[in-house]
Amino acid sequence: MLQRPDKNNDGRRVRGADNKRKIVGALLNLIEAGNARPSAEDVASEAGVGLRTVFRHFADMDSLHSAVSERMTAEIKPIIDRPFAATDWRAKLDELVDRRVEMFERLLPFKIAGDVHRYGSVFLTAEHKELVRVQAEALKRVLPAKLAGDKARFAVLDLALSFDAWKRLRQDQGLAVRDARAALRFAASALTSSEPGR
Q1: pTM of the shown model
Q2: How many H-runs (helices) and E-runs (strands) does the chain carry?
Q3: Regarding the domain delimited by 1-59, which CATH topology (the fold level of the hierarchy) does it fall under?
Q4: With CB atoms counted within 10 Å of each terminal CB, which end of the chain scores lower, N or C?
């Protein structure tokens, strides 16, 4: 005999997925509004769900940050995957700077919030290391082999074009996006000016 689908179970599943979406959206909203350390209570209130619902969906804040990270990764992936219009390495480097500005500016409030929790979070620490690795690999692919192989110069260029540099320019120095972009471009140009060719 076939079992009939349990409509109550299906309803709970739908409500559960809806609550999870609300909770992730609430965390995103709170962080974008400048709350770098939203509590579970803040998230529950913003989502319009009970505190127990927040904890039922996310056993700890790491799992909630992981869900937010998935959403942010999906949002910035088109920026990362966009093909370069330029054909020479210097123009590609300029494009890379512009992409990073676009990506970093979108990630800024979320990375600031994540950095608050990073040292107590295995997930956020691993995520940060992966971001650093991906950025370095993307930069190496744009540069001539000689420049990418110059350990000291590459390390400084990688640092100058990193999210950490962007955060310092925007948050600590208070530069406007336009001025912070100009600073990254200046650093890229200064650190590669002795390299011949285009």
Answers
A1: 0.78
A2: 10, 0
A3: Arc Repressor Mutant, subunit A (1.10.10)
A4: N
